[in-house]
């Protein structure tokens, strides 16, 4: 849920830069909702103590409810932020929470979700004892939801405690001993295990996950390639894509949740990448992708449940609506009327969702100042959003009331995909492309990383002529620098072969004439701009040679391009990827 998206694999792109089977598409029909609910989440979401104290303030706010945290006399004070750990919990620490829940009005409780994170995420899917504890943590959450008459659980699958990453194959402790398929089967079993415990405590629960398949329907530089193609069909290298994706085990875990859940359990995919979408057409198209392509990522025998049980929610990132909170991510920065930007984001999110919108924020708050009810009293105290953006409360309420349109209106807009293709346009033959040949490659060792068996090593980087081989667990990359000119199109062509595991990619970053990195450009994760491009190998058989072509157009102030070839998600010393750079 946080804006700081972790990178997949053991080497981070930032650290390197500092160093210099095809299936029929199954459509999922959107659901008509007579009224859209809107909830808050983020750094300043209330604790249960604050919800009880300030519940009479809620009717004054432009939201129906909120994600809430439960403060306990433990370290950390929010145990559910580390629910995916093998540490046993003393259930008695939640007794006061049960008492507080009794003081919350049922109508308010019914619009609130208990937050639960998949962190630290260091429990291997084959660890029976560890998953016994993880399941117990979910069971405790479900019991609190049921006893307090809350609406459900807000699940955050994102990895915040790297190198641990719950749904990443290469991060599993025994990845060297088991195949991806083995781990997918184990993850599916754990999903069944978790939801069975949840069902017993709260059979009518609603589970809002900030993302599910929405994180896998498009290629992502920071996470990995999508296992489905632009037509929504599975790629030939479907399993390979998932094995190298930071959330590649999430589809199997979701399959387990779906197949063992009671009929009355509902899931929401929170479509977190909606944070950065700047038009109705982007959100509409992303919703279509999640319904169609997301369904095809799930195993066939579970797709009917995906269709019937998974609904879509869309987010609004308030900090990006303001003009200066996170400048390189500001939405529609040319628009001076920021309330108009907010109004549009609310309307589009409502029109794309299945009756639920969530507003995420970091540097502002909806609720009164938390004071003694905060998780950490006095930490991260920010201004009321009404002070940061005067008129925002009325803007949200008015926009929501005015946009209760039928779902079929959404499907009238079949415009651009949520993440534009990074290759050249279809008329690329008419564009003059300058090939970058005979590049001078050099190894860049970024860091030492622990392998899955506990040893610490660097990758071995071998460079010979126009071949770069990266062998073993990743600890570096190879780079080459080329002079470029703004307005021109360039390409780097390679042929990739690999043995074992690992996710190869090419990417480019730019420098100004004085050698400074160009890092202040506007870079929305859903719309990579001219100063950041990347490429994965083309679809095909992973054991055979495959093309990987990087195409890019430098921004106006770029004088040189730094080309990176790197590999993430390798597991053992036998894993090897070779990039052979071809003259064009």
From TrEMBL:
Source domain of life: Bacteria
Protein name per Swiss-Prot or TrEMBL: Uncharacterized protein
């Amino acid at each position: 849920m946080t804006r700081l998206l972790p990178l997949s694999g053991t080497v981070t792109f930032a650290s390197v830069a500092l160093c210099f089977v095809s299936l029929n598409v199954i459509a999922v029909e959107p659901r008509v909702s007579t009224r859209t609910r809107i909830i808050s989440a983020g750094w300043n979401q209330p604790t249960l103590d604050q919800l009880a104290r300030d519940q009479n303030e809620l009717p004054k706010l432009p939201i129906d409810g909120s994600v809430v945290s439960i403060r306990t006399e433990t370290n950390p004070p929010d145990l559910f932020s580390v629910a995916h750990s093998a540490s046993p919990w003393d259930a008695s620490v939640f007794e006061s929470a049960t008492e507080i829940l009794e003081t919350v009005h049922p109508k308010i409780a019914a619009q609130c979700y208990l937050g639960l994170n998949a962190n630290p995420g260091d429990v291997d899917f084959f660890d029976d004892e560890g998953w016994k504890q993880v399941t117990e943590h979910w069971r405790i959450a479900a019991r609190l939801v049921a006893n307090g008459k809350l609406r459900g659980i807000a699940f955050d699958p994102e990895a915040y405690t790297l190198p641990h990453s719950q749904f990443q194959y290469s991060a599993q402790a025994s990845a060297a001993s088991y195949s991806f398929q083995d781990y997918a089967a184990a993850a599916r079993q754990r999903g069944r295990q978790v939801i069975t415990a949840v069902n017993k405590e709260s059979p009518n629960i609603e589970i809002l996950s900030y993302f599910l398949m929405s994180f896998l329907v498009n290629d992502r530089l920071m996470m990995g390639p999508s296992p489905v193609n632009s037509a929504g069909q599975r790629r030939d290298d479907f399993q390979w894509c998932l094995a190298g994706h930071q959330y590649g085990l999430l589809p199997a875990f979701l399959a387990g949740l779906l197949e063992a859940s009671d009929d009355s359990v509902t899931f929401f995919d929170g479509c977190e990448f909606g944070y950065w979408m700047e038009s109705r057409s982007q959100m509409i198209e992303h919703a279509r992708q999640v319904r169609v392509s997301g369904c095809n990522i799930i195993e066939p025998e579970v797709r009917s449940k995906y269709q019937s049980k998974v609904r879509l929610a869309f987010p609004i990132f308030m900090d990006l609506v303001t003009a200066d909170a996170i400048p390189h991510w500001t939405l529609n920065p040319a628009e001076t009327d920021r309330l108009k930007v907010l109004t549009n984001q609310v309307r589009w999110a409502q029109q794309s969702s299945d009756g639920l919108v969530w507003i995420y924020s970091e540097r502002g708050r909806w609720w009164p100042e938390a004071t003694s009810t905060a998780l950490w009293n006095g930490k991260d105290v920010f201004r009321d959003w009404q002070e940061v953006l005067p008129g925002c409360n009325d803007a949200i309420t008015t926009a929501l009331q005015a946009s209760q349109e039928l779902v079929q209106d959404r499907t009238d807009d079949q415009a651009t995909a949520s993440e534009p293709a990074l290759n050249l346009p279809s008329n690329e033959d008419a564009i003059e492309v300058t090939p970058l040949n005979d590049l001078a490659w050099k190894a860049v060792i970024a860091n030492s990383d622990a392998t899955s068996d506990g040893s610490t090593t660097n990758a071995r980087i071998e460079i010979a002529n126009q071949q770069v081989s990266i062998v073993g667990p990743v600890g570096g990359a190879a780079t080459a620098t080329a002079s470029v000119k703004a307005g021109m199109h360039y390409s780097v062509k390679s042929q990739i072969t690999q043995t074992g595991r690992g996710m190869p990619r090419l990417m480019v970053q730019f420098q100004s004439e004085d050698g400074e990195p160009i890092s202040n450009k506007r870079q929305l994760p859903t719309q990579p701009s001219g100063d950041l491009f990347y490429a994965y190998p083309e679809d095909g058989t992973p054991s055979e040679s495959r093309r990987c072509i990087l195409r890019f157009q430098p921004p106006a102030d770029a004088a040189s391009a730094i080309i990176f070839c790197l590999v993430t998600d390798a597991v053992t010393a036998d894993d090897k990827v070779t990039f052979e750079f071809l003259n064009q």
